[in-house]
Amino acid sequence: MKSSSRGCSAERAAWSRRHFLSAALSAGAALTLSTQAKASLAQAVEFKRLVRGSHHIVFATPVEASSVWEAVGGRKRIVTYSRLVISESLGAVEPSERELMVRTLGGQVGDIGQIVHGEAELALNTPSVLFIGQAKDQPLFIQAMSQGEYPTKSGEKEPILALSPRLSEIDADEASAVVVLNKQRLSVARRLVQGVAR
């Protein structure tokens, strides 16, 4: 992939991360201010946009996780670092190593826990299709939060993709990633991703 295209992808990834984080924090604030507030629908990410905005797209298994306090967006928050063992690169840039470290928002440090609604969960030892973003001078992250995480279940012949357990209620159409990928076999997901990547 050309470097100029990758630069644009990095900018889109950074914008996407800020957009989703802002939406998640705004939703949390709204619920705090009003006990009668109704849940609002989050905007679904188009499948093609998710693919093109991701730095890595992998079938990988989280094998280790640890949570720490870090400054994020000017505020101190709990974040979780998960170590992924990669089984396969499905598209975008193939990782140079067989392991990646990604950061998600939320987690538990001691007796204090923080949840960021809509963030990816990355359950340990659960093989998943993951769309991974990269921003300048920042850790790798799950692109579009929970819309970029597809844990798999065992099928008769191959793994079947499912939606993230942390997925918020969203307004999704047939072009959205969650509709395109949900309940697909891994081989179908691979073909769909590579079709966009070309």
List the helices and strands and how they pair.
Layout: H1 3-33, E1 42-43, H2 47-52, E2 56-72, E3 75-92, E4 99-105, E5 107-109, E6 112-114, E7 128-133, E8 140-142, E9 149-153, E10 160-161, E11 170-171, H3 177-181, H4 186-197
Parallel strand pairs: 1-11, 4-8
Antiparallel strand pairs: 2-3, 2-7, 3-4, 5-6, 7-8, 7-9, 9-10
Q: What do these coordinates show?
A:
The protein is of the alpha+beta class. It has a single domain (about 5-195), classed as OB fold (Dihydrolipoamide Acetyltransferase, E2P) (Beta Barrel). It has four helices and eleven strands. It has helices at about 5-35, 45-50, 175-180, 185-195, and strands spanning about 40-45, 55-70, 75-90, 100-105, 105-110, 110-115, 130-135, 140, 150-155, 160, 170. The strands form three sheets. A five-stranded mixed barrel has the order 2-3-4-8-7. Strands 1-11 form a two-stranded parallel sheet. It has a two-stranded antiparallel sheet with strand order 5-6. The longest helix has about 30 residues, at about 5-35. The chain is globular, with a radius of gyration of 16 Å. Mean pLDDT is about 85; it is low at about 1-5 and about 25-40.
